[in-house]
């Protein structure tokens, strides 16, 4: 299977538009469309629903996209590793981060780590919590920041802190005018946008569990793949959702954030390989301990010895 075709498909899937993808890839739209058709012919399935606006993936397309992203990341990591060995480049340290803008603090943590370990070539891969487990085992990443505290053999996790969810509501919605916290019951009566972030489990399961535990049924559930898409729908007035409180620091236009009546929390989790305790891992734990302390958060005992 031609990797170029796979890269073309991923670009179209991400941008949801052939014209924009062709521009990003710096090719004409016609050959791009042909390459995708060739890929669909080879697989024997339709990957993209071309009648929808914006373009959407078929069920087969969603599965292929998930695997294609991981394949390209593995390929890029393999090529980078071989090239760095050939060129005698700096040793590499790669972070896995969930592809959502409410992970804003991670940038500052990585900056501090890079300053403490200037000999390293730092890389970042967008992976959800489940994908990070596989990436750690395959040594595609060296540490991951996720939201789901998964238990997996050979992977060590540290819950750095817990964060409260808040409601995300269209700015002109009646609930946005309510003084004080908004209840999950009130949100369940609206079109509720769930960002699934396959593969599961993901943050979507934490959100759905919050409603299920209170025996609340969502009147109308709207499924999307990405957090960014969910925020776009809220901004467009097409639904409501909930998000970690740090989402407020990058508040999209047209979205109002309100505290929740209920306590619904999500952890921020560091994952690394079990038993790996080299200088880089020690430096990362030291950076995390210092950062959490500077922000006024309790420092987990597992980080204390590194501070």
Summarize the main sheet: 7 strands, mixed
What fraction, in percent, of the residue positions are helical? 40-55%
The backbone outline, from C-alpha atoms, is globular
Q: Give the termini distance in whole angstroms.
A: 49 Å
Low-confidence stretches: none
Structural class: alpha/beta
Number of helices, where a helix is a run of at least 4 consecutive DSSP H or I residues: 11
How do the helices and strands follow one another from N- to C-terminus?
Answer: HHHEEHEHEHEEHEHEHEEEHH
Question: How would you sum up this structure, described in words?
Answer:
With 307 residues, this protein is α/β, with parallel strands linked by helices. Helices cover 43% and strands 21% of the residues. The chain is built from eleven helices and eleven strands. The strands form three sheets. Strands 3, 4, 5, 6, 9, 10 and 11 form a seven-stranded mixed sheet that branches. Helix 1 (3-15) crosses helix 3 (29-43). The longest helix has 29 residues, at 59-87. The radius of gyration is 21 Å and the shape is globular.
